[in-house]
Amino acid sequence: MKSYSLSMFRAGFLATILVSGLAQSTSLYTDPRDVSTKEYDFIVVGAGTAGNVIATRLSEDPTKSVLVIEAGIDDTGILPIHVPFLGFSNEGSSVDWNFTTVPQEELNNRTVPVPRGFVLGGSSSINLMVWNRGSRDLWDHYAKVAGDSGWSWNALEKYWDKASTYLDCTTVINYLSLTTHCSQISTLVPPTSNPALPPPPRNDPTLSNGNGPVLVTRANFPDELDDKVINASMLLQQENPDSRFKYTVDMNTGDSIGFGYYEESTGHGERSSSATAYLHPALNSKRRNLDVLIQTRAMRLLQSKNTASNSTISNGHSSVPHFNQVEVAQSVDGPRFKFSARNEIILSSGSIGTPQLLLLSGVGPKDELKELGIDVVADRPAVGKNLRDHPMLVTIYNVNSNQTLDDLMRNPALQEQLLEQWQNNRTGQFASTTSNVLGILPEDQLKGIEDPASGPHAPHLEMLFGDGFLGLFEPLPANGHFLTVLNAVVAPKSVGSLTLASVNGGTFTHPLINYNIYGDSFDIQAMLQAINDTETFLSTAPWTQDDFIISVTGRNSTSIGTEEEKIAFMRDNTITVFHPIGTARMGSKEEDVTDSRLLVRGLKGVRVVDASVFPTLPECHPQAVVYTLAERAADIIKEDHGML
Ligand SMILES: Cc1cc2nc3c(=O)[nH]c(=O)nc-3n(C[C@H](O)[C@H](O)[C@H](O)COP(=O)(O)OP(=O)(O)OC[C@H]3O[C@@H](n4cnc5c(N)ncnc54)[C@H](O)[C@@H]3O)c2cc1C
Ligand SMILES: *[C@@H]1O[C@H](CO)[C@@H](O)[C@H](O)[C@H]1NC(C)=O
Ligand SMILES: *[C@@H]1O[C@H](CO)[C@@H](O)[C@H](O)[C@H]1NC(C)=O
Ligand SMILES: *[C@@H]1O[C@H](CO)[C@@H](O)[C@H](O)[C@H]1NC(C)=O
Ligand SMILES: *[C@@H]1O[C@H](CO)[C@@H](O)[C@H](O)[C@H]1NC(C)=O
Ligand SMILES: *[C@@H]1O[C@H](CO)[C@@H](O)[C@H](O)[C@H]1NC(C)=O
Ligand SMILES: *[C@@H]1O[C@H](CO)[C@@H](O)[C@H](O)[C@H]1NC(C)=O
Ligand SMILES: *[C@@H]1O[C@H](CO)[C@@H](O)[C@H](O)[C@H]1NC(C)=O
Ligand SMILES: *[C@@H]1O[C@H](CO)[C@@H](O)[C@H](O)[C@H]1NC(C)=O
């Protein structure tokens, strides 16, 4: 088994249930036999980030019935989900699907973890809560690929607003009845105190200010890296006005490039997920038309009228297979049950689950399906293809500081005290995530290379800073203090694929996930640049004063070494940021899996709403991009069924 630097949290806390957990809703089922109706207007497969938006929005219409089918468990009362500081400890736990890749050739055949939420809220319940909108260019690129201006940045503004609310400093202070003034909380106001620089431009705050259910804040608790990162970016900008390391107040204005505080999906000291923000409020308001069935996996989609491969249902134009049933099971050998959808089935099972279900249902590359003995319902060669993720290099430094999180990680009594405080009034260190600041920057060596990013306002690289040993999949050393830098290539060129390992076991058998990390040598060059950029950044005064950085762990130097040594280091220390996309890509071409209204081409009655439809990677942490997609998709579905 893997071990985790924060495993001490997991071991103790997962068993802990909040004493005052919400009463379970009567329409939350754990057994398919208890669900009284077998036919609904809509069936949503997956109560994840996107699925809960769809289910909640569709069930706003009391005349339409909605069933949500979720493989994982209820999130209610699971502390590591709700306590922001414990966000890291969900990977590899009972709320994770625990997928891994196949051996990655360019990583010396290492496999890398593919965590995915196995719980209400899906990955929004287990992610690290970074809240990035992406760039204007990203959405404009999607609009172009889809041939639908409805996906452009400007057209989506209202859906961004519909998904989230930014709680500014004053709101947070009032909620906590604190006497502190906002300007006294260094993490909530951008520092303007560097006299050598003009005050950083304040972008229009309305841009990141919506009025939707997901709560968003800046970091709730300061750490020693905040000032270092912001000062370093300001100093580099002072030296060079065209600095690639510029400071930014707001990463969510459409020009996402810059270093600064990021926003996170927390509010009032708790994680805000699609379960806490959308699904539970809908269930608690006793919508009679919304049922949720958990601990139950969709196994495949079926055509009830005619299960033969060439079923014909006249829709007035052409004859296409029409899936209107979902077959489910609670264990691999357990009984199967069927639920029918009068209007349509929405697949929101994520970038791994959605292509897996389509393939198991006979929708995919004909030859692959035949080889596995699956009847071909629709030959869709792009299903499972175009799998992409952001490669991420984890670099850990020994540092000269006693303020890092490491001592807390080694101190169960202090953790217990902070947890008590959190339970008492949602304040203190546990009310915040384990990192506050990041930087997003463009490549500077693209001469002659086709730019893989969406456009000039979209970045290529990211640096995220953690004040302690955030090894993710390695144990915390018994001694020492650490800085973790997570470098990601956010516009990589490598493309991989997902295929079925076998038809046996259905969705109980893990698919073969191949990200093909560094398969394109551009990504190695890009990561080399990221390492160089990190060395440049960390050689500024805020880091060198007081000899803060001692060395890269396991080395005698603050540098990783020669280019050869850097590439070897990359092969040993790269994972991904857990952002897979693209396996049911949207596009205007016949070969694309979904069209601009997210309907699966070649089928009737099936739509995909989740990260698998993105044709290219968002150059950012994608959850807010998924929420925005889902909010528009809900309106598209309502429009198509006369509900608007
Ligand atoms: C560890 C981790 C950290 C991350 N950190 C960040 C971050 O800090 N910021 C950010 O923006 N993004 C982050 N992400 C990525 C982000 O969370 C995802 O991109 C996003 O949540 C994906 O949403 P989705 O709706 O496509 O899929 P999901 O939210 O994963 O939802 C899919 C749902 O479908 C269910 N499902 C799958 N198959 C079946 C089946 N056969 N039957 C029934 N149900 C099924 C799953 O259990 C799940 O609930 C992180 C992801 C992970 C895993
Ligand atoms: C993932 O692994 C954890 C720890 O072994 C386990 O408790 C959990 O059930 C696994 N998840 C699934 C979906 O099997
Ligand atoms: C990785 O595995 C492949 C296939 O087994 C093999 O050809 C290759 O040599 C291996 N690479 C390394 C670095 O071990
Ligand atoms: C479906 O149609 C194809 C081509 O029209 C044909 O080759 C195939 O045999 C048909 N399959 C069934 C089950 O009728
Ligand atoms: C950290 O604590 C140790 C032991 O108390 C002390 O010797 C050392 O000077 C401290 N280091 C810093 C950077 O404060
Ligand atoms: C929250 O609770 C802690 C004790 O658990 C207390 O010290 C602190 O003052 C409280 N804060 C507020 C804002 O009530
Ligand atoms: C990284 O820095 C080294 C040494 O300064 C330089 O030789 C190399 O070209 C740089 N590589 C990239 C990708 O920037
Ligand atoms: C950051 O800059 C401010 C203003 O110049 C200064 O007061 C502070 O000490 C600096 N902090 C660090 C860590 O460099
Ligand atoms: C670091 O330097 C010391 C002393 O010079 C040496 O003994 C040790 O092997 C070096 N370690 C590494 C990882 O290079």
Automatic annotation (TrEMBL):
All residue ranges annotated as the Glucose-methanol-choline oxidoreductase N-terminal domain in the record: 350-364
Record keywords: FAD, Flavoprotein, Signal
PROSITE patterns the UniProt entry points to: GMC_OXRED_2
Segment forming the signal sequence: 1-23
Record carries keyword rRNA-binding: no
InterPro entries: FAD/NAD-bd_sf, GMC_OxRdtase, GMC_OxRdtase_N, GMC_OxRtase_C
Positions with a binding annotation for FAD: 119, 127-130, 622-623
Named cofactor requirement(s): FAD
Biased segments, Pro residues type: 192-203
Highest taxon above the source species: Eukaryota
Annotated region (Disordered), positions in chain: 191-211
Active site residues per record: 579, 621
Pfam families (alphabetical): GMC_oxred_C, GMC_oxred_N
Gene Ontology molecular-function annotations: flavin adenine dinucleotide binding; oxidoreductase activity, acting on CH-OH group of donors
Protein family membership: Belongs to the GMC oxidoreductase family.
Name of this chain's protein: Glucose-methanol-choline oxidoreductase N-terminal domain-containing protein
Species this protein is from: Tetrapyrgos nigripes
Organism lineage string: Eukaryota, Fungi, Dikarya, Basidiomycota, Agaricomycotina
